[in-house]
Design goal:
Length: 401
């Protein structure tokens, strides 16, 4: 089972355009013990875009993960073209390839792989521009069925006053109570070199309009003995609360003691990442500035398959709700490490906009949405204003079933 582990967002982003060779080749995800339908078309990448081969046939790129060592069979079947399969390492090294080991002109690879991340290339067997429909099947042994879940997210942003405090909303779904940990940090950011960090954060937890918990200095919380050792802050001024919550919607607000303003970090952890009760959505509202003061959301995914998520950056719609100084045109950039893996300015321009659930589509064209199927690992979403504009915005992460 994949788990979401702790991810502290202390980010230094370096972009190397010369490294993004295959950035235009879309990575499709496939889970263990599943089948997907695809089509080779003239808009696809070519094999030579991904591998150092003189092969201009069209290809689709798939990624998958194994949580343990497993026997694996990949089958590519098509009645439109002579199938050809390549199995690649996570670094795009060719491990195995096949042309006609399957029935008719199907391609089949059977092997044993260690735990890790891998890639599959599907294309025609001849070095021609063949197109058509196909079926790709990935069968493994010793792999549990998909059990990904969203159990931790953190957002770094400017903590101001009034409408500009940092507000985190979370939704718990299921039939049983769930124990979570919420942490507000500031001094740790200063120690990591972030300028203007909040020196003494407060955190308040609400259910609707009712205050149900609060904390200033974490060692003074009545449940401090329930805080896992690895989540105890090194600075006594940071705030932590451990709370068992029934399914529903909750709001956590981070402020500065005595009205102090500065950059803060709010984190939510699901302490028991098993069972059907789970975090399915978290959103953070705060002020989006420039430089260190942009809004940064981080999430970590683990499990047996890919996690479908929707990330959303909202600004204009806040104005209609009476929020002053809302960001007029937010942009959303998604990173894996230091590599940009997706971005969006206006949500209707995203190539996967048709996959965005109807209920998550913004009412304003200027707001940003990314639909993505993510492999296990740590990811960062950054919200900025177009042309360095500033204002209040919301960054949201939704788990999509």
């Amino acid at each position: 089972m994949y788990r979401l582990s702790t991810f502290i967002i202390l980010i230094c982003i370096s972009i190397f355009p010369d490294k993004i060779v295959a950035a235009t080749c879309i990575e499709n995800s496939i889970n263990a013990n599943s089948t997907t339908q695809g089509t080779l078309s003239s808009s696809d990448c070519r094999v030579s875009d991904i591998l150092p081969f003189n092969d201009d046939s069209f290809t689709d790129l798939y990624v998958f993960s194994l949580s343990t060592s497993a026997e694996l069979t990949i089958n590519l079947a098509s009645t439109d073209f002579d199938s050809f399969l390549r199995l690649l390492s996570d670094q795009s090294e060719v491990l195995l390839e096949d042309d006609d080991s399957g029935s008719n002109f199907d391609a089949t690879i059977t092997t044993t792989l260690a735990a890790g991340n891998y890639k599959i290339l599907t294309n025609s067997a001849t070095n021609q521009e063949q197109t058509g429909a196909y079926t790709l099947t990935l069968t493994t042994s010793n792999q549990p069925q998909d059990a990904t879940r969203l159990i931790n997210i953190a957002t770094r942003g400017m903590v101001g006053s009034g409408d500009n405090v940092l507000i985190g909303g979370l939704v718990i779904q299921g039939s049983e109570s769930k124990t979570i940990l919420i942490r507000a940090r500031g001094p740790a950011l200063a120690a990591a070199g972030v300028g203007g960090a909040l020196s003494d954060p407060n955190i308040f937890l609400f259910s609707g309009p009712t205050l149900i918990d609060q904390n200033d200095d974490w060692e003074g919380h009545p449940n401090m003995n329930l805080i896992p050792q690895n989540l105890m802050p090194s600075d006594s001024r940071e705030s932590v609360m451990v709370k068992t919550l029934v399914p529903g919607a909750y709001t956590a607000i981070v402020t500065g003691v005595n009205g102090e303003e500065g950059i803060g970090l709010i984190e939510v952890f699901e302490l028991s990442d098993t069972g059907e009760t789970r975090l399915i959505n978290i959103a953070t509202r705060g002020f989006v500035g420039t430089g260190d003061s942009v809004m940064i959301a981080g999430l970590v995914i683990s499990g047996t398959g890919f996690e479908k998520v929707v990330l959303r950056a909202k600004g204009p719609s806040l104005t209609a709700l009476g929020v002053n100084g809302a960001l007029l045109d937010p942009q959303l950039i998604l990173f894996s490490g230091t590599t940009i893996i997706d971005s969006n300015d206006n949500w209707q321009d995203h190539p996967d906009m048709s996959k965005i659930p109807e209920n998550l589509r913004p009412v304003d064209d200027l707001e940003s949405v990314i639909y993505k199927e993510l492999a296990p690992g740590a990811y960062t979403a950054i919200v900025i204003g177009t042309a360095n504009a500033t204002g209040v915005a919301i960054v949201e992460v939704f788990e999509i079933e």
